[in-house]
Amino acid sequence: MTSTPCTAHHAGEPPARSAEASTLTRRSRRRAAVCAAGIGIAGLAALGCGGAAATPAGGETPTTLRVGLVPNQAPDRIRAQYRPFGAYLEKTLEQPVELFVATDYTGVVEAMASDKLDLAYFGGVTYVQAEKRADVTPIVTEIDRETSSPRYYSAIIVRADGPIKTVADLKEKDRKFAFGDINSTSGSLYPRLMLDRAGIGNFTDPQKFVYTGGHDAATLAVVNETVDAGGVEKRIMQRLIDSGTVKAETVRVLEQQLVMGYPWVVRSRLDRGLVERITQAFLTVRDPELLALLRADRYERVQKTDYDEVRREATRLGLVR
């Protein structure tokens, strides 16, 4: 997988500057300005800012496909996990692919909003945040191995040997709760929904709520008794159990709720043919080892309305404005 130089150009423009060509030129200048100035997100400068050719009818066709991934676990772990997927895309699409893992969820939203990504793996909340700032379209999500559906579980967990028996018990004064990243769907939004139903709120209170940055860290905070309970993506907790990092008998699920799967999202200005080839690359994955790395049985198409619940509840609870 290679990176592209920090340039922007559009191939095949006619000598006469039509209104469309002028628009493309303005876009090129904006992209070059973003690339020159940076946008203040750690690691983002490593991404190529250009290399995209444009066709008036079909949209943009980047010479290198820039792929962003939300760090729902430690960024180094995500980078290693998706390296085989990057190689698969390169082979299938017959073009270079560049992977980018931000230090937090916001970094991937910023990269997409600044036209520094072509394809991104968002959570539901980050997708809804991104669509507020960029013209993006969800294309596919994975069929979860536990539920055999496009939905997976968010869970509130506690130590199995502790006194907490219900979510309502977390109302007690000195109870402390760990979220993952504040913009996580299953590590922030859906745990908030479950807490909200139990009459627990004021999620900005630092004496009661902490943000660990990821599902693995939130799980370990519960196991190590740094906090009394935590909100996590259940399948990431299970991966920690399967790897031996966490003993199954040390944790207990208090409550869980199904969440619409992580959408893979493209910039809407991409060439429609390229978008369909990317979509088919997901729909036709057959390698069992690659699917296991991606936590998927297979993929299926999604559309914007599949994330209406996330959009509505994230707005109500202040995660999307």
Provide an overview of this structure:
The structure is a single chain. The protein has two domains: 19-145 and 262-316, 3-Layer(aba) Sandwich (D-Maltodextrin-Binding Protein, domain 2), CATH 3.40.190.10; 151-260, D-Maltodextrin-Binding Protein, domain 2 (3-Layer(aba) Sandwich). It contains ten helices and 13 strands. It has helices at residues 19-37, 75-93, 105-113, 124-133, 185-197, 215-223, 234-242, 272-283, 288-293, 308-316, and strands at 52-55, 59-62, 65-69, 97-101, 119-121, 136-144, 151-159, 177-179, 209-211, 229-233, 251-260, 264-267, 296-301. The radius of gyration is 21 Å and the shape is globular. The two termini are 36 Å apart.
